[in-house]
Request: fold
Amino acid sequence: MPAGLRHARRWLLINLYNASTLARRSGRFSVSVSLIPTIHFQFAATQGVNSSRLLPFGDILLPGLLHLSFGEAGFRLVRASEYGISFCPARIPPESSHHMKLNAHALLRAVCTAIFFLPFFCLPAEGESATCESLAQFKIDHGEVNSAQAVPAGQLTVNGLLSTRTISVPAFCRVLATLRPTADSDIRIEVWLPASHWNGRLESVGNGGLAGSIAEDAMAGALWAGYAAAGTDTGHTGSPATGDWALGHPEKIVDFGWRAIHLMTLEAKGLIAAYYGVPAKYAYWNGCSEGGGQGLSEAQRFPDDYDGILAGAPGNYFVHLQIGGNWISQASHEDPATMIAPAKLPAITAAVLADCDTLDGVKDGVLEDPRQCHFDPETLLCKGEENNSCLTAPQIAGLKKVYGGAKNPRTGEQIFPGYMRGGEAGWGLWIAGTQVPPGDYQHGIMVNTLANLVFDGYKWDWRTFDFDKDVAYADKKVGADINQINPDLSGLKKRGAKMLQYHGWNDPAVSPLNSVNYFESVQTKMGDTSSFYRLFMIPGMEHCTGGPGASSFDHMQVIVTWVEDGMAPDRIVASRPGRTHLLCAYPKLARYRGKGSTDDAANYTCAAE
Ligand SMILES: [Ca+2]
Reply:
């Protein structure tokens, strides 16, 4: 294929996709029709939508032919992809269905226009594989490309930490590189480039815990959605709960803290531009847990890196998060008498719900805002023999410490907030445990972090942590690099980037109040941030996912809509099997309107408390 035509085809695909998402996000219905196998055109009815925003490609390719008007509704050719023969309505919002005025004449004219463009899509695929392999010679600034390989669609075997596994992927160009910004750095990155149907965007994916591996599954998900994807191990290899890589390697701590993500971003953008011949139109960060903290780091340190940032359940106050974990270990495990067996957790939540579930007006097993609940654990005191429905006095004392969070015993200052009432049934993996030392995740990551990044390795005894002087010591030693708490997001605001932070109220791994604290610190510093930074607290969601609340939604769709269409999210409809629920931009809360099913988000409104 001639280079010019290839370029035109690429631009068309990119912009068709963009127009498609704009149309869908604008709340208009769309209708899809496939003409021949492997060619699929989607027409979106775009009544009332500004045509100049919908047709960014119109300037390049025959604008008059792309804009079809039929009475009240405008039909545009907006997308091509390989779905085979079909004729189906796609994503028709109920409130828009009455706008549908598709008639035979309109369809005929639209199909004719589509046929005009067939040659663009019927041309043989360009030589991506050769182009891909040439990336092995591509010069990057902070290291070298190790390999570039065209991967066919199908099953890809990746070497996971615990086991080798296969993941399903579309055809893509897989680039492996190693970055060495310092002599002690060894940062592995991967950049995955869709062989076809690239949507013009980069989606970088984050890590969990102490990182140490690349999230191939998340990268595959991004590929399937048409994104070029990037990921890094942040400069060391190992389990996300292993920290021995850091002992005696201060530069590796910097790589983990912020440098690897930033450099990965720069190199991913360069590789994208080299492979496709055009730069990514938009770059997105998508991370939760440590990945959420990485998103905040990018927002604070390198606001030019991303146009949109999804920061879920961020472990951004990393030093204090671990100190909070130590607090829990000391509160609930230092003395075996304080240990709360996992079998007791459901009874605690049941007692909390009996006290507080209906404070939000709906009995649904979920607290809309657990801060409104002041359930007193003393009510669970065993009257006679201990059983799984009651707590002993030492257990109650430990539970109160988990709720209350880490505090400086001398000043009373909160070091890291505690965990919320109503989520206890989901604490098992993270907080509770019957071993000494505890085998839960919080404890494991805490010991590995504090022992290796702050103190002198595993000979350090977690029981000796001093919640006064050791806090300042830890912050001074590594806080500048691994805490992401700067409330000044003026760089992000200035360039028009957007950040959506979300956090489950039932999170047992990173206190949800940490998200509230950071969000409010930014409001204090900058005033109202609603034009570029919003927080969504998710009732009943545990760490990044799961829990009794309805918490599933298309995160990327929300941030892409905000960045590219300028539509800031006020409310998000989340779902779980059998239920939809309304999520509201903090500090608003979903309030039941009083009529209709309490499992239907349509019967709620976002209201100030
Ligand atoms: Ca409730």
Remarks:
- Residues 139 and 484 are 31 Å apart (CA to CA).
- The pocket of calcium ion is lined by residues 357, 360, 362, 364, 366-368 (CB under 6 Å).
